[in-house]
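Suppose a colleague, Dr. K., hands you the sequence of a protein chain of 371 amino acids and asks what its three-dimensional shape might be. Before reaching for any lab equipment, you can write down a predicted structure in token form. Begin with the sequence itself:
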Amino acid sequence: MSKLRIDVDLDKIRYNTRFLVDRLKPHGITVAGVTKAVCGHPEIANAMLEGGATGLADARISNVMRMRNAGISCSISLIRTPMLSQVAQVVDNCDVSFNTEMRIIASLAMNALGKNVTHNIILMVEMGDMREGILPEHLESTVSQILRMEGVSLKGIGANFACLGHVAPSAEAMALLSSLAIDTERAFGPALETVSGGGSASLPWALGKGATGKINNLRLGEAILLGTDPVSRHAIGGLYTDAFTLWAEVIETKAKSNPNPVQMNYPIPSMQCVTLDGPSNTRSILAIGLQDTDAAGLVFPAGVTFVGATSDHIIVETTDCPARAGGEMKLRTKYSALSRSMAAPDVAKVFRGASALAEIIAANNDRPYSK
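The predicted structure, expressed as tokens, is then:
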């Protein structure tokens, strides 16, 4: 087994999902498990479903297709606005897609009509994060256009918070989203099935004492996977924060002092070598780099200080217990490091607590997905 690996504790993911599902249920809010940071790994997706998530959500159609090919047949939403070039795949594999562009919605409708199916739409509204969404004042006219289309069905509205702007949603913003849903229903009649109030950053609001209004769904990724709040980066009480452990092999450990550049008589004037001068520090090199993870998103063990990173190396200084070449170092990941490590082909993924899932996946592998 490769020593460069990420260990995944499925029991802790299952527990975190159940914990959040149970606490949101009294507030009338369901949970969609977001799998984009783990590249749609079916084992993790199934753990979320076993924990009570009512469906899954991802930003990339390739991840959705990975889950479908593993036999996962629950409702899956594409939460990034579909690419026009991938409309056919979206209709074939996603029960719902989150949308903002009429040209893309019209293409989804045309493709769905050609297949004699109806594709479901969640219309995203800009509520201050300044990423995706139509402006609130354009909501009524946009809904009117969608309702006149055959091939698509408007299932709800939603908003995004704390991704680009890193600002948690206020009670006022959530109340406005709820009132927009009420106004839409008053204007057009049919009740919206889903009012999606954002992701993990919306949990403090949802679990607070205020009314949740029409909002009945959250899309949870970081809270389930890492047990942390994406805005404050603090641990969420009651959740596991160590479902993922990244292990990297040590390939060098040496005592090195601060380098002192010395100009040498090389043909190229800019070439330098270094001499060692001053007190020595014990430095270790890990066989992992920026191609494998986000170094800024790693949490190192006590007594280990991050020095720097290149494409294939991470350099650390150790104090109490120097790491030996051939040994391993245990690293914790923040969201950015997790998502890059899960996507890196040279980082092996090892699942713990997966015995119950193996039978489910094996039984479903040969069963085609059908809506």
